[in-house]
Structure formats: C-alpha cells, structure tokens
Design brief:
It is a single chain. By secondary structure, this protein is mostly helical. It has one domain: Sodium:dicarboxylate symporter (Proton glutamate symport protein). The chain contains 23 helices and no strands. The longest helix has about 35 residues. The termini are far apart. The relative contact order is 0.17.
C-alpha cells in the first residue's frame, strides 16, 4: 500500500472534527470570504438564513414538549417550584453582577471619551417595553394555540407548565399523553441533531454577510466600545461563571468550559438565545450531565428571562453614551441603571429587539439622550454576538448548579471528557 493511500482524505478529516471545531472553521472562512467580497457577501446570506430558519422551526415544539416532559418527570410539584425559585434567583443575581461588570469596565476604560458624538444623530425608534402589570397579565394566553403559532415563549412556558402539572395530577389516565409528549420530545432532539449538522455551513453564510456588511470602516470608530463589551463577556464566561461553579457547585469548572463550546459558537453567530436552545439542551444533557427534567425546565426558562449578556451590554452602552455626550453620572445613577436593567430583563426578554428596548429604558431612567440608541444601533449586531453568547453560557451555568443542588447532575458525564483525575482533584481540594 503506497503512502499516499494511507493519508486521510479531507472529507474523512472533516467528518471526524468535533462540531464546535467545524463551526469555528465555518466562522473563519466566512470572515475571510466576507472581507474579500465586501457588500457582495450579501449573496451568501441566504445560506445562513436557511440555517436560522431551520433553528427557528425547532424552537416552539422543542420548548413546549421539553417543558411538558420536564414537569411530568417531576412528580413532586413542590420540587418543581423549588427548582423554578432557585433558577430565577440565580438568574437575577447573575444579571445584576453582569451589568455591574459592564459599568465598572466602562468607568475604568471610558470607551466613549474623545469620540465627539453629538445629539444631531437621528434617534432610533424603539418599541415600548411592557410594564410589570402588562407582563403579568400577558403570561396567561387567551388561546394557547395562538400562543404556539405566534411563538410567544412566555405564554408557551406558562401553558406547558400548567399542562404538565395537570397531567401529573391525572395519574394513570394522564400517562398515555405523557408518553406522547416524551416521544415528541425525543423526535425533536433527533431533529435538532440533524439540523445542527448544517451549523458550520449556515454559520459560514452568516459570518460572510456580517464581515461584508460591517467592515473595518464601520468598526474602527467604535472599536473601543466593542472591545470593552467583549472584554466583559470574556470575564463573565471564563472567570465569573467558572468561579461560581467551583465555589457554589463544588465542581471543577474545566469540563463546563469545554462543554459549552458548541452552544457558545451557535449563540455567537446566530445572536439568538431561543435559537440556540436546541444546542443548549443537547449540551446540558450529553456533555454536562444535567438530567432531562432539570435541563428541560431551566434552559427554556433561562432563554426567556436570563439576560446576563444584555445586562452587560446595558452597562457598557449607557456609560458609552454618557461619555460620548459629555454627561456626568452620579453614584445614584449607577445604582438606578443596575436596578432598571435587572428588573427589566424579565419583562423585555421575549420582545423583539430586547437589547435596544432595555437600553431605551436605561437611558430614559437616568436622563441620557435617546440619540444614543442610533449610535449603538450601528454596531448592535456586533455587540449582539457577544451578549447572546453570555446569555447562553449563563443559562448552562445555572442548569449545572440547579442540577447539582437537586442531585440530578451525572458526574460521570460531566467529567467524562477529562477523566476522573479532575474529579479526584476537586474532591481532595
């Protein structure tokens, strides 16, 4: 046998690559293609659009079936309430930390200083965020079928929770329906696996379009604010989340960091927490060892109410606008920004353009020019990549913590990639 025949073919090498590595290759090739093609890279956008549409196709049935299965797997309704309470408390706490990180970095690095922004820019139109009362009233769908068709995630979650509890209370009579939802959930997981095989190609198209549209000519004037936002994102994902897992969860964070690679890459390129949900659920179950019940409950909830990355973005953007317009903020303004963004994260998470909506709330609350929205909107897509990645990584961190606290984290799966050495080191530390 000659030496040439022993070399693996490119196709064979590609098939053996891990999914996140394929996605990384797609991202890099997309950036190169977009940089070379410029505006003509718009021609490649349909490839990414097809992938995003396929992901969106999964969201409603996956969330609905996963939640019903998650609730019915918890025969103890008190346990469900306990898990929900834990998740919400952790989500709100990490959101407050995230916006504090954004404010702190922006105060130190001053991304808006010297940019010479003026109020002459046209203000972006922002959709009005719902009030607390409106949010509460809109939780119950008038027609659950309409909620499913419209993709109203909050209403879908409420209906799925109610249906799951009702099926549990039905006892034996509810078991046939539970089996149907379990079969549908498994079918959605398999469909997710098939769709995810298209991720490298779809992400290539998306990144080519982004690189072609947002070239250096657009990024350079605002490079500093982008850098601050990305630095804050790295601090949260690689320092804060692992520290919480190690201190609170008493787990070695290295498997967590390695396990989140694929959903993080999907989140970065699709800029959709809900769109990344299929990859997040797959990761939590197969790579991090979180049980089906916990992952099916915590992750859809997090995709709806957890806004760590968006909160970080609020802190950076608010101070950037203040510095760009030469407005001095007091300590009380900083506290107000933290409280507003944290509480608004639940009410606006399910609204299209949630990042800009939350920013409009923050700017209005502390009296900053609304023209700042137009400035930030120009680079919103670039910032959205980072904040969505943080949102998704935060969701997965909470799923690990809740699974660990409930005794529903399979450590043999969690430590599988690293072997037992990490677990031994963690237990002896």
């Amino acid at each position: 046998m000659d030496q040439a025949s022993m070399k693996p073919s490119p196709k064979g090498v590609w098939s053996r690559l891990a999914l996140w590595k394929k996605i990384l290759v797609g991202m890099i090739l997309g950036v190169i293609a977009g940089s070379l093609m410029g505006p003509d890279a718009e021609l490649l956008k349909p490839i990414g659009t097809l992938f995003v549409n396929a992901i969106k196709m999964l969201i409603v049935p996956l969330v609905f079936c996963s939640l019903v299965v998650g609730v019915t797997s918890m025969q103890d309704t008190r346990k469900m309430g306990r898990i929900g309470a834990k998740s919400i408390v952790i989500y709100l706490g990490t959101t407050a930390v995230a916006i504090s990180v954004g404010l702190g970095l922006s105060h130190i690095l001053a991304p808006g200083a010297g940019l010479g922004m003026t109020a002459s820019a046209a203000a972006a139109d922002a959709k009005e965020a719902p009030t607390l009362v409106q949010t509460i009233l809109s939780l119950i769908p008038n027609n659950p079928i309409s909620a499913l068709a419209a993709g109203n995630i909050l209403q879908i979650i409420v209906f799925a929770l109610g249906l799951g509890v009702a099926l549990n209370l039905c006892g034996e009579k509810g078991k046939p329906a539970v089996q149907v939802f379990e079969s549908l959930a498994e079918a959605m997981y398999k469909l997710t696996e098939l769709v995810m095989k298209l991720a490298p190609y779809g992400i290539f198209g998306l990144m080519a379009w982004v690189a072609g549209k947002y070239g250096l000519e657009i990024l350079l004037p605002l490079f500093k604010v982008i850098g601050v936002a990305y630095l804050g994102s790295v601090i949260l994902v690689l320092l804060f989340y692992p520290a919480v897992i190690q201190v609170v969860g008493r787990l070695n964070p290295v498997p967590y960091i390695k396990g989140i690679m694929t959903p993080a890459a999907v989140a970065f390129t699709t800029t959709s927490s809900s769109g990344t949900l299929p990859a997040s659920i797959k990761c939590a179950r197969e790579d991090l060892g979180v049980s089906k019940g916990v992952s099916s409950f915590v992750l859809p909830l997090g995709a709806t109410i957890n806004m760590d990355g968006t909160a970080l973005y609020q802190g950076v953007a608010a101070l950037f606008v203040a510095q760009a317009f030469g407005i001095q903020l007091e300590f009380a303004d900083y506290v107000t920004i933290v409280m507003t963004a944290t509480l608004a994260s639940i009410g606006t998470a399910g609204v299209p353009g949630a990042g800009l909506i939350m920013l409009s709330l923050v700017l209005t609350t502390v009296g900053l020019p609304m023209e700042g929205l137009a400035i930030i909107a120009g680079i919103d897509r670039i910032l959205d990549m980072a904040r969505t990645t943080v949102n998704v990584c935060g969701d997965l961190m909470v799923s690990v913590l809740v699974g660990r606290s409930e005794g529903e984290l399979d450590e043999s799966i969690y430590y599988r990639a690293e072997g037992e050495n990490l677990k031994v080191k963690e237990e002896t530390a």
